[in-house]
Design goal:
140 residues, mainly alpha
């Protein structure tokens, strides 16, 4: 059972290179290093167990293996949950801000030009008839 979950964990880590290239190499290397340590520890304990007489206490227990495999699986799942980063979006709002700035600059210059030219006095302006019909507007 433990060798199956250990093998399965190693397969997940191997697939990360192709399926999840955005994972930080440092974190992947930590998981691989931890897996190698676990594999070496297990091989060492199995070798020690083979040389131990059957009537003596075991070199390792299934609980020890379970705890170590579980710790490795937790590390694998924490790295596996790292989300794919969102693609970098070009800064379009900056372009809009520049366009708005240019519009305000041009409107300021236009208003300053109109201020510099002489304005017709109110008496020169044509009078509006209040009796005339209001402009009709198309309704939607």
């Amino acid at each position: 059972m433990y060798s199956f979950s250990f093998f399965f964990t190693l397969q997940i880590v191997k697939n990360w290179e192709t399926s999840k290239p955005w994972l930080p190499k440092k974190r992947v290397d930590e998981v691989v290093s931890e897996a190698d340590k676990l594999k070496a520890w297990l091989e060492e304990k199995e070798t020690l167990q083979k040389s131990t007489p059957a009537h003596s206490s075991p070199a390792f227990t299934s609980e020890e293996v379970y705890q170590k495999v579980l710790a490795l699986q937790n590390k694998v799942s924490s790295v596996n949950r790292i989300p794919k980063p969102k693609p970098k979006v070009e800064k379009k709002p900056a372009v809009k801000e520049e366009a708005n700035k240019e519009k305000t600059d041009s409107s300021e210059s236009a208003s300053s030009e109109s201020e510099s030219t002489e304005k017709p006095s109110e008496s020169d302006a044509p009078e509006k008839n209040n009796d005339s019909e209001p402009e009709s507007h198309d309704e939607l």
